[in-house]
Amino acid sequence: MSADAREPDAELLARVFLARVIEPGDEVGGRWVREFGVAEVVRRLRQARDALPGVSAARWGGLVARAGAAEPERDLDVARAAGVRFLRPGDVEWPGQLDDLGDGRPLGLWVRGTASLRMWALRSVAVVGARACTEYGAHVAADLASGLAERGWIVVSGGAYGIDGAAHRGALAASGATVAVLACGVDRPYPRGHAALIGRIAEQGLVIGELPPGDHPTPSRFILRNRVIAALTRGTVVVEAARRSGSLVTARASQRLGRITMGIPGPVTSALSAGVHELLRGEAALVTDAADVVELVGEMGELAPVRHGPVLPRDLLEPAAREVLAALPGHRAAPAEEIARGARTTRDEAIARLYELRALGYVERHGDGWKLTRQAVISVRRGRSPC
Hints:
The protein is an alpha/beta fold. 45% of the residues lie in helices and 12% in strands. It folds into three domains: 1-79, no CATH class; 113-297, Rossmann fold (3-Layer(aba) Sandwich); 313-382, Arc Repressor Mutant, subunit A. The chain has 17 helices and twelve strands. Helix 2 (27-36) crosses helix 3 (38-47) and helix 10 (219-232) packs across helix 11.
């Protein structure tokens, strides 16, 4: 049970207050909380004196103005009415890996949905990419998320158009679990065109965010939201991204945090894959499907299957027979002696192999010579059996 399911205590109210006043990812604010404690930070902001260190007078004045309008009890009431709870560090459900963000750690998280965020985060993968994605990108993201969900992994993304939406839908289509990390209040889904999708995620998964109820997204909040996606998960997969894509921010945050960073390549002619290719030239791992991802982020023994090219019928022949078959000219009959020289064997051995090949439909007698059958010529080119 989260702390706000009971009568709110002073520390809970203080963190809800600060979530309204301090922007997500503000490391100065995080340092204040670490050095002075939430109660002292709240006291100074409320009393509007004894400015805390590390900010200008103008910025301190802006924080004090925000503090004057903060109503933590009201925020909790609005959240409860929307089926939203507030998690703080130290709660049973708090994902400990968020602590890797140091002073940039969220002051708390607003959560919509019934599952345990801590348990889900332990086996989660971020799938992110371009908003204006191609059909290829959307297909790959949905297929990847579906494959991860079928293997029991949680798909985490940002709820946006493009790759994010395709990833969420892919996981839901496989009756799997997914988490949307929003850059706004979780009671006000954004983008509006994804209101139905985000509602479905809340029913089947989790919708989380740092911003209090009713807060709106801004460009900086989208960027800062990405650090939560990176920290929460075991690894990040970028499906499509241009060179200035916000999803590259998630990938680089993942690298800084020691998580596994992966990319799915696209056409070299596509600007929407240029950012992914840049990652792959660095330390990111190239993956093509869910099996590849799980091999990297999963436990020991969760290996992707060994991949082979197609097995051709001639691959099933004995090595000596393959040598004899390769020694036959393509468009004429040849005597056994010539074939033996080409196969680097004796005449008797070549004849024995030629009879085997005739039984399999590869060759036929032409007087004193041997020739590939018409079906064999076609099948060797196409990789099929002549029989």
